[in-house]
Amino acid sequence: MTNGEEPEVPQLPRELYGELLRLRRERAGLTQEALAKLMICSPGNIAHFERGRRRPSPEDARRLDQILGTADDELFYRMRRTWESSRVVDYFTAVAETEHQATLICDWAPSLVPGVLQTPAYAKAVYASGQIRRDDELNDAKVARRMRRAQYLSDPQGPALWSLMDEAVIRRPVGGPSVMAEQLEHIAALGERGRIVVQILPFSAGVHALMEGLLIIMNFADRPDMAYVDGINWGHSTDDPGQVRFYQRLFDMGRALAMAPENSLALLASVAEEYRHAP
After folding, report:
1. CB 254 within 8 A of CB 108
2. For the domain 9-85, what is the CATH code?
3. How many whole angstroms separate alpha carbon 10 and alpha carbon 224?
4. d(CA 31, CA 22)
5. Where are the domains of the chain?
6. In the chain, % of residues over pLDDT 70
7. CA-to-CA separations, 128 to 104, 105, 125, 172, in angstroms, rounded
8. pLDDT digits over 91-115, tens only?
9. In the chain, is it the N or the C terminus that has fewer CB atoms within a 10 Å radius of its CB?
10. For 78-87, what is each residue's pLDDT tens digit?
11. Which CATH number fits domain 90-276: 3.90.190, 3.30.70, 1.25.40, 3.30.870?
């Protein structure tokens, strides 16, 4: 975990590798077929690389670097080694890969806007904050993947989202006033269109049951419900019915202390306006 947010799919080496490959290929003006011809392989192989389904061989990685202009820093060769050696955050992988199958997602955010609700500018600021040496290309790949993850919000058949946020989420300036204004307006617009339910848990609520970290609960129509809890450098997912009920009670307790949805949307609009007029 970084920056107090969920370690979603874009953090996985195979997904980042594929996203960077797609971005570099498109920047070079190449189709998958054209790149495959230069690589002397099938277009299907390129598609598998970009989707994270297959790891390029060392020779393929070096050829990608030569063709796509990254040979000096051996970008794809180095990232292949990272893919090979990285330990995937298994406890979140199940959550990230099944959320689109849920009927309802209850999401508690204590410090940052939930990933699926983030605007590109906000997401990029979050990713950059966790880097000693900023890597814009890597961040662009992460942001692009995050935006695709959020597509279920516009799918009529996708899961409903109940987003409960601490007031700190909307008060903490991430990326500057204009980025925050755009971000809060985006959330408010989704709420007003009925795509999500948003509730803000105000500072005035004082101490509460959800103060220790992020919580995601997913309800399914045809499989056991799942809960995911997260702290600094740890996380846990479970589909044990007793544990899921326990976490649902915590979420419900926080929801009971939160502002009503209509008041929450009004607060989002008000704070966005404050950011718009910030010096």
Report:
1. yes
2. 1.10.260.40
3. 25
4. 9
5. 9-85, 90-276
6. 85
7. 31, 27, 5, 16
8. 555 666 678 889 999 999 999 999 8
9. C
10. 877 666 544 4
11. 3.30.870
